[in-house]
TrEMBL record:
Name this polypeptide is given: LysR family transcriptional regulator
Gene3D superfamilies linked to this entry: Periplasmic binding protein-like II, Winged helix-like DNA-binding domain superfamily/Winged helix DNA-binding domain
Organism from which the protein derives: Marinomonas rhodophyticola
Keyword list, A-Z: DNA-binding, Transcription, Transcription regulation
Top-level taxon of the source organism: Bacteria
InterPro entries found in the cross-reference section: LysR-type_TF_proteobact-type (IPR058163), LysR_HTH_N (IPR000847), LysR_subst-bd (IPR005119), WH-like_DNA-bd_sf (IPR036388), WH_DNA-bd_sf (IPR036390)
A Pfam short name: HTH_1
Similarity comment text for this entry: Belongs to the LysR transcriptional regulatory family.
Domain HTH lysR-type: 11-68
Keyword Nucleotide-binding: no
Length: 251
């Protein structure tokens, strides 16, 4: 062993984990609940660290705890170290040759209607590779979210060091039943009740721009959390108002 090796005089990892939870919550009780320990166990862990380094990490007042300056410094370093350790362990687990994992983050709509139905065939072709599918949308940081691949729309910034592969093109257009069209619209979509999805809040505006009708306004509007809600109604309700559908054209 090298003479330059320095023995690390650190508190036990369990004590640091208890301190990090208590500092993050500013509460010994909530830390105990998170870690499934007793309040006394958290208190003893913190006291063990304070005794080791010789300074107070918390100020106790009125049954509450507040971080001291030293406590704030230790929280920052401990959180970063625990995050790095957790990430490394997760990467080793996911990429172990005996049981490799490919973690894929995918837009919920695309995951349910396109990706998931194809996972069975993928499993047959690559039986040695396990898939960890996470449904999410919007910008993503692959490193911080422990993902290998993300399937996203290209309507936000992408980091320069990411490799990008185009999967499909997107087509947007209004959809309604023939009964609703004949009864309410009569070739004028402004007479319709437009349905909006909060997952694509600018969809109608983008479509109007593409058609050169930016000033067009609907007679009435409704908003839904996700386009699946009006989609389910479309299959059962012949009087469904006008909804803007976004079709994916696979290339």
């Amino acid at each position: 062993m090298s003479n330059n090796h320095i023995k690390r005089r650190l508190p036990p990892l369990g004590a640091l984990t208890a301190f990090e939870a208590a500092a993050r919550h500013q509460s010994f009780s909530r830390a105990a609940q998170e870690l499934h320990l007793t309040h006394g166990a958290i208190s003893r862990a913190v006291a063990q660290i304070e005794e080791r380094i010789g300074v107070d990490l918390f100020v106790r007042r009125n049954r509450r705890v507040y971080l001291t300056t030293a406590g704030q410094r230790l929280l920052k370093t401990t959180s970063e170290a625990l995050d790095a350790l957790s990430l490394t362990v997760e990467e080793i687990h996911r990429h172990d040759s005996a049981s490799p994992f490919l973690t894929v983050s995918c837009e919920p709509s695309l995951a349910m209607r396109w990706l998931m139905p194809r996972l069975g065939e993928f499993r047959e072709r690559c039986p040695e590779l396990n898939i960890d599918l996470r449904m999410a949308g919007g910008p993503i940081d692959l490193l911080s979210e422990n993902c290998d691949i993300a399937i996203r729309r290209m309507d936000f910034g992408i980091k320069e060091n990411y490799q990008i592969t185009t999967l499909c093109s997107e087509w947007a257009g209004p959809v309604c039943t023939k009964v609703y069209w004949d009864k309410h619209i009569h070739q004028d979509v402004s007479e319709a009740n437009w349905l909006h999805s909060r997952t694509r809040p600018n969809a109608w505006d983008d479509w109007k721009v593409s058609q050169g009708i930016e000033k067009l306004t609907p007679k009435s509007e409704q908003h839904f959390d996700h386009f699946f809600t009006p989609y389910r109604q479309l299959k059962t309700n012949l009087a469904l108002p006008l909804v803007l559908f976004l079709w994916l054209l696979m290339t």
